Amino acid sequence: MLKVLNVNSSIDMRRGGGTAERTFQMSRHIGMRGIDCTVLTLDLDVTQSRLQSLLPARAALLPCIWSRFYIPLPQFIRIRSLVAASDIVHLMGHWSILNVFVYLACRLLKKPYVVCPAGTLPIFGRSKLIKKAYNIIFGRSIIRGAAACIAVTMGELADFRDYGVNLEDVIVIPNGVSPSDFPEINNDLFLEKFGLKGTDFLLFMGRLNLIKGPDILLDAFVHIANSYPELHLVFAGPDEGMLEPLMRSASKAGLAGRVHFLGFLAGDEKNAAYRTAKLLVVPSRHEAMSIVAVEAGICGLPVLLTDRCGFSEVREVDVRLEVSATKEGIALGLTSLLDTTAILPALSKKWSTFVSSNFTWGTIAPRYCELYRTILANR
């Protein structure tokens, strides 16, 4: 039986976002296809229910000694043992001390590994000097030494080229969604809990972090609010420093009653948010293929994304679904979709069909299995 060690600093959706969910879903789905899969991760906020849902894959948890930078307790003997017991290693993300420890073990034991940075290769956001130093010491070597590099979208290929990778060694495997995670449910409890019953609302689903662009969306909503007086805006996601500024901006614009902050949603509440919103807006400044966009598609919710999301495939459904990552771009996109009553229901069906045909884990997981076996056969 093929043994795979998947490595990510977090498999908790609240902390790790899209890469955590990708690792979680990919691991359990390749496990369903007969691969012996272990996920090496940190013990931050990992619940028993999350571990149970991961089956048939299993988790090996390392203690975290500094949650700010996800620094694990350096249990080198245990890490070496896990790498030694695996046929191939899969490193998720890029700015990760855990990845460094595992990479060193792979080098020591001459184990093949693949990397999937999932859009994180460009230096963006905070701690730029630390990231530059990381790349000089370890980062570039980790990427260049991989048996294969996995891009989430075609748009990510340029990032690998900047690291000196031959693009023939890069394979594109997109994010996926598991339809069974989003069944038809009664949405009334969700609507009543958050005071949204009878309300038309736009939905933002993600971390309240600058890179995700919630401020751009709020500015766009302020711009169009007078034209759509019954429309509300809902932010669903954990705060990463932007909640108070966003609340102040909404209040200053006189829209505090129409802008809602629900916090982190999961399970039935997340499902219900997708199923009751009018439109999902993904206003990211930088991203590699939004997972929430495909989750929304499975729930029949159309999406509007910026051209910084690395998900230009959405234009195959309708060119109006991709806009510039600016207040003006998002406002114009919203207006083009909201002005005609029939547009969103039609796009809902087209987007749902597109996602179901191209981005479910049933079709994506076998591509990982094939990649692993090809690498091992070539060795």
Provide structural commentary.
The strands form three sheets. A seven-stranded parallel β-sheet has the order 3-2-1-6-7-8-9, sandwiched between helices. A six-stranded parallel β-sheet has the order 12-11-10-13-14-15, sandwiched between helices. Strand 2, helix 2 and strand 3 (58-62) form a beta-alpha-beta unit. It has 14 helices and 15 strands. The chain has helices spanning 13-31, 48-54, 76-84, 97-109, 128-144, 157-162, 188-193, 214-224, 243-252, 267-276, 291-298, 327-338, 343-358, 361-378, and strands spanning 3-7, 36-42, 58-62, 64-66, 71-72, 88-92, 113-116, 148-151, 170-172, 200-205, 231-236, 259-263, 279-282, 303-306, 322-323. The protein is α/β, with parallel strands linked by helices. It has two domains: 3-176 and 360-378, 3-Layer(aba) Sandwich (Rossmann fold); 180-358, Rossmann fold (3-Layer(aba) Sandwich).
Q: What's the arrangement of secondary structure elements?
A:
Layout: E1 3-7, H1 13-31, E2 36-42, H2 48-54, E3 58-62, E4 64-66, E5 71-72, H3 76-84, E6 88-92, H4 97-109, E7 113-116, H5 128-144, E8 148-151, H6 157-162, E9 170-172, H7 188-193, E10 200-205, H8 214-224, E11 231-236, H9 243-252, E12 259-263, H10 267-276, E13 279-282, H11 291-298, E14 303-306, E15 322-323, H12 327-338, H13 343-358, H14 361-378
Parallel strand pairs: 1-2, 1-6, 2-3, 6-7, 7-8, 8-9, 10-11, 10-13, 11-12, 13-14, 14-15
Antiparallel strand pairs: 4-5
